[in-house]
């Protein structure tokens, strides 16, 4: 029964993803010949067509990836891939904890290897073709190795901890595991700005007295205590620009990509930052974190129940072994299969995110300047080759940010 349910959902997922992707490609192609009237004076036809081609390329890669991932998922579950790896590791490793960690590691490795060609295609194919990639192959290799190391240092203790809790805390293990998950996440958020991010990028204090003074004045108006203003060498990897803030408490800092500062005027940088401060003011980031913890709690409860059901294993192509823990198997199956079902809440998540974006835009218009934010947005869309004419259905389903035309229309009427 569960096999059938899984297949029906998986098939529906793929169909919907392909349908949305093809809609997006067609819609963008139909509007490729003409810059939308509201952008006529600011964006050239050449740029507009470049954005259309870039969007086409992005969707194309994601469609091939969708089909590949589905095939790998079926291979690992129903066709016996996971079962095969589990049996092999059972013969090789006696220690239960190491055997289970090795199983989790092997599956992550398989997923990593499957994802690698797509990452390469994106960075050195698509991004390079449109002039966005600034990363050498050597840097890519060193990033990948560093990323693996960080994942191992953080992930191994987490996985070992959760497996230990599953095996030793009885019927309420999922509550304990959830607690460990929450602590782990808070720890990573705390460590990210000062320990993890500097492994990959250089952060230098913002050295522009004029801009710095503006930002401090803005932060003060908004009641935001800044503990640091930094510029990140984003240009080392990509021409895409961004700004964000990160950390909490004393480690809270504002980070600008050097690529953003080089493109925007002082007014525009201030407006972009005011938008980010809007997210802070309305507690969007904290709310998202709470929502993610509540969802994790639900997932752990469901996992706690599923891990006790024999059909959960057998219907997904794995035979749980008697007389040894099957916790790693349950975790892997759950994290492999769950996205097939949770894919359907994507539009809801996107909708909430877009609502937050509008709210942050309004805040920026009040605290800074709607005009400056509009001109910054147009520049960023242009520079990032983001399409101005997305398919409305595709956008409603996936986009975390509202289409440019809508954002600008609302900003024009902001007060
Ligand atoms: Zn935003």
In brief:
The protein is mainly α. About 70% of the residues lie in helices and about 5% in strands.
Question: Hetero groups bound?
Answer: zinc ion
Oligomer: single chain
Adjacency order of strands in the biggest sheet: 1-2-4-3
What is the strand content?
Answer: under 5%
Task: Please tell me what the overall shape is.
Answer: globular
Low-confidence stretches: none
Overview of the structural elements:
The chain is 72% helix and 4% strand. By secondary structure, it is mainly alpha-helical. Strands 1-2-4-3 form a 4-stranded mixed β-sheet, with helices on both faces. Strand 3 and strand 4 form a beta hairpin. Helix 4 runs parallel beside helix 12 and helix 9 packs across helix 14. The mean pLDDT is 93. The structure holds zinc ion.
């Amino acid at each position: 029964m569960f096999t059938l349910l899984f297949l029906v959902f998986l098939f529906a997922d793929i169909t919907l993803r392909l349908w949305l992707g093809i809609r997006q490609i067609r819609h963008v192609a139909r509007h490729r010949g003409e810059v939308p009237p509201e952008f006529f004076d600011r964006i050239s036809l050449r740029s507009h067509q470049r954005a259309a081609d870039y969007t086409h390329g992005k969707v194309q890669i994601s469609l091939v990836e969708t089909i590949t991932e589905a095939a790998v998922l079926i291979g690992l579950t129903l066709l016996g891939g996971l079962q095969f790896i589990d049996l092999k590791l059972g013969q090789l490793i006696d220690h239960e904890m190491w055997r289970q960690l090795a199983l989790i590691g092997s599956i992550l490795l398989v997923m990593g290897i499957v994802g690698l060609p797509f990452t390469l295609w994106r960075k050195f194919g698509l991004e390079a073709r449109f002039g966005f990639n600034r990363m050498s192959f050597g840097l890519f290799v060193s990033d990948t190795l560093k990323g693996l190391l960080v994942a191992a240092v953080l992930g191994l203790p987490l996985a070992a901890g959760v497996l230990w809790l599953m095996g030793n805390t009885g019927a309420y293990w999922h509550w304990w595991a959830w607690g460990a998950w929450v602590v782990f996440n808070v720890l990573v958020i705390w460590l990210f700005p000062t320990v993890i991010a500097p492994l990959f990028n250089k952060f230098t204090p913002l050295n522009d007295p004029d801009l710095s003074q503006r930002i401090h004045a803005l932060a003060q108006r908004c009641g935001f205590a800044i503990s640091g203003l930094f510029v990140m060498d984003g240009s080392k990897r990509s021409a895409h620009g961004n700004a964000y803030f990160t950390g909490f408490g004393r480690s809270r800092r504002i980070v600008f990509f050097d690529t953003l500062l080089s493109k925007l005027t002082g007014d525009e940088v201030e407006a972009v930052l005011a938008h980010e401060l809007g997210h802070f003011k309305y507690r969007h980031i904290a709310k998202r974190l709470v929502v993610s913890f509540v969802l994790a709690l639900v997932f752990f409860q469901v996992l706690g129940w599923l891990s006790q059901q024999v059909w959960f294993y057998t219907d997904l192509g794995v035979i749980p072994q008697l007389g040894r823990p099957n916790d790693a198997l349950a975790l892997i199956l759950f994290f492999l299969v769950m996205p097939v079902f949770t894919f359907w809440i994507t539009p809801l998540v996107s909708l909430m995110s877009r609502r937050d974006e509008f709210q942050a835009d309004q805040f920026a218009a009040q605290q800074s300047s709607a005009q400056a934010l509009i001109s910054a947005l147009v520049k960023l869309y242009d520079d990032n080759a983001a399409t101005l004419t997305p398919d409305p259905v595709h956008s409603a389903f996936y986009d975390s940010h509202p289409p440019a035309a809508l954002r600008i229309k609302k900003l024009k009427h902001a007060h």
